[in-house]
Amino acid sequence: GPTMIRLTLKLKMNIAIVAAFIIIALIFTVIELPFQNQRLQSIRENVILTLHTLVERDVEPLANEIFDQSVRSITIRLEKMMRIKGVHAIHIFDSTGKLLASKGPDRNVENPLNRFTPPPAEPTVIRTVRIHGQPTIDYTREISIIGERIGFIQIHYSLEQIEREQKRAFILFTGLLTTVFIVMTILLNQILSRTIIQPITDLRDAMERIRRKKGSSEQVRINKNDEIGDLSSTFNHMASELTRSYLELEKQNQALLISEKEINQVRKYLKNIIDSMPSILAGVDNQGRITQWNAEAQTATGITANEALGLLYPDALPWADKMPLSQIKDAIVQKKVIKKSKVEVTIRNERHYIDITVFPLTQAGRNEAVIRMDDATERFKMEEMMIQSEKMLSVGGLAAGMAHEINNPLAGMIQNADVISNRLMEDLPATLSAAKESGTHIDAIREFMEKREIPRLLENIRGAGMIAADIVKNMLSFARKNERGKTMCHIGRLLDETIALAKSEYNLKKRYDFKLIKITKQYEDRLPEVPCEPGQIQQVFLNILTNGAQAMFQHKQAMPLGYEPRIHVKAFVVQGIDAQAGNDEKMMQIEISDNGPGMDEHTRKRVFEPFFTTKDQGEGTGLGLSVSYFIIRENHGGEMDVDSYPGTGTTFRITLPLEVKNDR
Fold it and tell me: What is residue 510's predicted lDDT score, i.e. its pLDDT?
């Protein structure tokens, strides 16, 4: 950068004094100039009055002499008038502007008629001009007798002496002001040097000695009862404090040196803790290079810590494609944790599931992250067992419903169909004999059947058989474990099938009947298909529907008179955020609402906890909603929450991504 000019305090004070003097001089000049101009104007007016008096005194005899053309008399009179101090030249003209007589060095005169054409209001014309470089008052007057012009008199009065005196006064004023300035500058410099600059210089020198010799106790002795004295006292106190602080810092430095060994021991202890963890831990910088490597990472990869440090993340860690480097960089930049659960990998030719978590280091100046990999295979198997266990609990209720809702219609349909077909529709001997004994004929009976719409009844029986077949199909589809993984499914159809399943469920304890609940549906037009495991999603829907039905019927007595249990199902597409990938994308949202008793805040917060239930002992396991939450969050990368207040019903909200997540 440019070199700064260093100005000393003394120089700054002198500059300030000069600036103050210039300002004062300008003020005096501004004040003095109007007085000088006023004085000059007063002198000019006195001169004009003198010239006017001079002319008035001799105007009548001069008029007679001009009339008589007496040049000698005029000349003598002009010589007398020239004795007036300051009169430089006098010229006499006749009425035609012809010069009659002249006194003074100025012979090149102007015709006075030029100044009186056109005639002025006054008989006198006065101008200030420069003649031969000298300021001069040009006084010209018309001379008349009985109102008739007979000539002119022109007087040149020199202002040179007045101008010279004015300049001399200005020089004197300037010299006096300069002398005052020099004297004041010398005195102020002496006073300021002794009272301010020298004490400050002593303070500066003492500070410099403290800077060069750390820990020295410098004291400045300035015995003044003013601000400088206060400054010196403060400086002495500060110097003592600095000395004390320096000694304390020296002691602390020694303590830090002593504790450095202990810090190294703590560092080793922390490394041992990290190395003893069963998880793979690896640190990476924002370029994707390994900065930390624990013992489990070395065991899993066969790469030592010395070999791993500096390697690129994909070259060092297995399954790096499951957590791309771009996502790790995003986590570092955005300072957010990224987690991928249940990532399927192959270890020693066996299928395993791992959890991968990226933790950004948020300390200032650290653009790094820690990658943690945990084997979640056993946990995944346990969760699968919980899901299947919950399915079996649901199938128990469905089995009773199947015996009640399917076996009875099927038995009736088979029995009635056989009787009708065998006895009426076929020409069996027993049928013909019975008809004859009854006094009729089989054709009449068949005609009667047509009139009584017996074929329509057979069609109804056939429809009941189709309903029973659909129920069996839905139940078997729900109960069967999905071995194919996620498929593209229409949420509206899954909801319809689940509602049909719920209507067929028959509770053994007669606590509720789902068919008494009014179901309304609201599906957005042209709903896109969703990648999901249909059996698991149906299980979630069924858990919500049955829980809502049970809650509404258990608290029916506490509801208002005329209460009608209702469930409203909605499905639509929203613009949401994938909570686990952090991406803004379109999501499928399903809302299942009931007008039941609702939940208080304590129950709502715990509704997804495993083994939490509000049912009577022996009626539930407390796993239905927790398993549902796990299915939505972990198996499908979605979100599940609940809104509820006492007396206002409950709404379960499920959000599912519309794109397949490779990490799921």
Answer: 46
